[in-house]
Amino acid sequence: xxxxxxxxxxxxxxxxxxxxxxxxxxxxxxxxxxxxxxxxxxxxxxxxxxxxxxxxxxxxxxxxxxxxxxxxxxxxxxxxxxxxxxxxxxxxxxxxxxxxxxxxxxxxxxxxxxxxxxxxxxxxxxxxxxxxxxxxxxxxxxxxxxxxxxxxxxxxxxxxxxxxxxxxxxxxxxxxxxxxxxxxxxxxxxxxxxxxxxxxxxxxxxxxxxxxxxxxxxxxxxxxxxxxxxxxxxxxxxxxxxxxxxxxxxxxxxxxxxxxxxxxxxxxxxxxxxxxxxxxxxxxxxxxxxxxxxxxxxxxxxxxxxxxxxxxxxxxxxxxxxxxxxxxxxxxxxxxxxxxxxxxxxxxxxxxxxxxxxxxxxxxxxxxxxxxxxxxxxxxxxxxxxxxxxxxxxxxxxxxxxxxxxxxxxxxxxxxxxxxxxxxxxxxxxxx
Length: 432
What we know:
UDP-n-acetylglucosamine1-carboxyvinyl-transferase, Chain
């Protein structure tokens, strides 16, 4: 799908999309906790649908209720096939593989798209210490594993992603681990571990003792779900909403409903970056309003995105419209995303007339009064498609985005929501 976005002013109020970070973790927790669960406000992105497909393949029954909620019934991990496919979800593969390893049959783990090229050496290194046989494709998918995983004292490096730790924490809880610790060095994205632990608690799973994010220790105390029905509501997604909030900052102002300022999601840090530009930001309950009817001059900012690397694309769109040069730390986290995002952002925003320089772990972005009309490409990366779309609102003419359907991975309604706020969006020769 190719779309064209013309310079536009936006205003209005839109609900936040459902958090896929929350949704996928909730699916995994419902699977391993057993019993019945209701997930309200479920997401419908490709990654969310992949999580539903995985838990069905691992034995859970998932029914769609008339009110839009999901009803999940599970008796633990009981695979119905000898393989699972995690789609293109990085969280999905890293979280579900340790759960699949809990069963004693040989299983094949598959993926799609860019996931086939992302490193999975972690499992080659860790699984043998936990009694799991593993064969990978030279550190990449597909994986063949045979458990059962036996919790033990291990040490792991958390510098690549906290998602591997999320999978281990859930697997240890499901196996009722006792008197064992997972030691972690160089842990990035700590807020996502907070989110994992919160959801585990919400579903009645055993919770480890978090010792300053350096070790997570499971005691002999058994914390088992009581058997009561779990009602869980997926919160609004700060990752997806960050693009809408940036659009409000640079193109006229908007409000996003359903965002919890006290959320454990790391990407709520977008609020600080917005404030640093000088744009007005109001918080009323779970509604965030950003911008003014007549956008003023935005000030360049400095921001550390090490714990929230998914904010790089919206922050680059924001920095592109600021006066002066902005600097974002954490660029080293971008190499193994759906694309090499540091390079992709640099190349695609150059087409819009924005200079981006990456020096070690820091990205510098020189803002401009007006961006250039151009043709850009999503590189099959959902966040690149959304970032260039938001930046296009301040271009001097139409911006063509090729392969814009990459948004389906996380936020299928993004272009419709942006259009509802007043953006001029065309699909081929028809209004989208």
